[in-house]
Amino acid sequence: MMETEDPDSLGPRDYRAFMRTETPQLTIPTVQDQFGTWLRSKGIDFDSTNGAEFSAAGVRASVVEHTRGHDEYVRCRLIESSTPQGTWCTEVVASSAGWIDLTVTNSEGNFVAVPKLARYLMQALDVRDASMQLVDEVKQWDVNEVDRLVELLEDQDRHGLVFVAGTADVPDLYEAFRKRVSTWTREVFGMAQSIVLTPRATQVLSERLGHHAVGPWMLRTYYPGVAPTQIVDSRRHRYLTTAALANEEDWWLRKLLANTARRHAATRLDPTEVIRAKRAFTRAETRALLAAFEEPTLSARNQAEDIPSQAVISAAPTQAEPQQLDPSDVDPERYERPAVSTAEDQLDLVRSVLGITSITRVALEQAMRPGYTPPAPGDVRSGALLAASLRIKEQLARIEELEDYRRNAIQALDDQQLERADLQDDLEKSRATVRWLRERLTEMSDYKTAYGEAPEDARETYPPSCVELVYRIQKDEDVLVFTGDMDKVRVVDDADTLQLAVRSAWEACGALREYVRARNDGNWDSGVDYFLKNRPEGYEGVSAGKHGATETATTMKQFGGERIFPVPVEVSPQQAITMKAHFKLASIGMLSPRMYYHDDYANSGKIYIGYIGRHLTNTMTN
Fold first, then answer.
1. 3-state DSSP assignment of residue 181
2. Measured CA angle at 13 (ends 12, 19), to 5 deg
3. Is 116 in contact with 110 (CB distance < 8 Å)?
4. Is 271 exposed, middle or buried, given 0-12, 13-18 or 19+ CB atoms closer than 10 A?
5. Are 74 and 28 in contact (CB under 8 A)?
6. What is the pLDDT of residues 268-299, one digit of tens each?
7. Confidence (pLDDT) at 381
8. How far is CA 330 from CA 84, 300, 305, 338, 342, in A?
9. H-helix or E-strand containing 305?
10. pTM for the complete prediction?
11. Alpha-carbon gap, residue 611 to 613, rounded angstroms
């Protein structure tokens, strides 16, 4: 439980907040204005327009704008390096698309409190995390807000945590408890939201969420994507008991919740639009850095007077008066030191004359060959700069590639952990069923059946590939009809070396067939998702955790076009329809295949599978 953890050992203490605004057109100007206001409150008079820079003792501030396609970005940054606590870096990146990413870090790992800039932004703009407005105070929600709360908790696009405190019908305690919650959660604003429920709302939420609910006088942490139908998922959302809240010091609870929010923010993957914006700034800076080297300059040690050729000397006037040098005009670096004064200078001279970069036997032998022409010094430098430029660009691309790989690995690991926990839960249920059946069969003296192996014909016969699965569907289209792209299916088969995806797809198809059978039998009159969560007796299915009934509003707004798949004209006159419902087939590296379908039972009595392929784009994919 959370109350057993040490708040001083919870890892990252940086402040990281992601917000979306309801007024995209005001986002960039407001961010620039509030950044300037914040700097002035720190005694820094700064013009926060594009290209503005400020530098003083240990303090550097800058504002940079960038345009990429139809989107405009701004990055405001303040670096304070002369403080006793180490270097503090505040960076806010905003987009004309209506989002803000705010990060404050400390080089010594010190705790970062909620910055005033975050409060300024929350007060100046209507900023939100998913469907909830971000404010710098604790919310009080009654029973009429429970539906909204459940939607918020289930939203997978939600970036931050939600702390929910439950209460009971004890009027004398309610107001005191609410004030204590405000004290405990004051260092999470912008990163998370805090809600105190009325007694009635606490009771209704308990009826709605079951194992995921919060009890009276308790405080629960809800991570993004709450899955109420999965008991195993409730383990993620930890809570503080009444005893912990009553017995622990306020400062301890405040630090615990603050570090919990910061640890989650450090591990939560940035939305793809934030990654694109930050990479755009990095690439622009890299280009500017490389451009600075395009005009080669000689080092001070090699700067010397041009030596005129013999023809120029011969053509010079013979009666010219000798020039007198003023001792004050003499550069000691040029005239007092010999042209070649050290062994290193001599080696530099050899490398320059021969046009080689290192003195090795191979390089010297090549330089001594007849017909060898050493490259001009400028050519050598230009070649080195070109090589360095290509090297930097290659390394930058490699860094981005590794970041994407790490991002997908984290997503795959999260999916696998949830899937493994779900499988362990199913396995325990199956083992309990086996034990119970064996006991009943043993009581009947049927020892052979009780302890014998299941016959081969009792095992499921899975197709060897997703392509074969589609062929089986096409042979019998009385219930399921595949209308998708076979090339997408083959991509899954290429990566599905252990046949994990095809087995999950086959089981999902079986669950859909059982759903149609239940409706034909008159034993079901609702949709697929509710069927999987509450299967009637006598019908098979798959874990409801593998099924997604829909996509988030943000995903559909940005990437809904990817989820339009072909169907027959009798299903849609446009011969295409948006399919949101899907099954998660497997966690296979960056592929993580999905199967999308359209439930057309009410119209044709059939289900159309429009897609089997790699994970489609959402707000968290690269």
1. helix
2. 100
3. no
4. buried
5. yes
6. 888 888 998 998 898 888 887 777 765 544 44
7. 56
8. 46, 15, 13, 14, 22
9. none
10. 0.66
11. 6
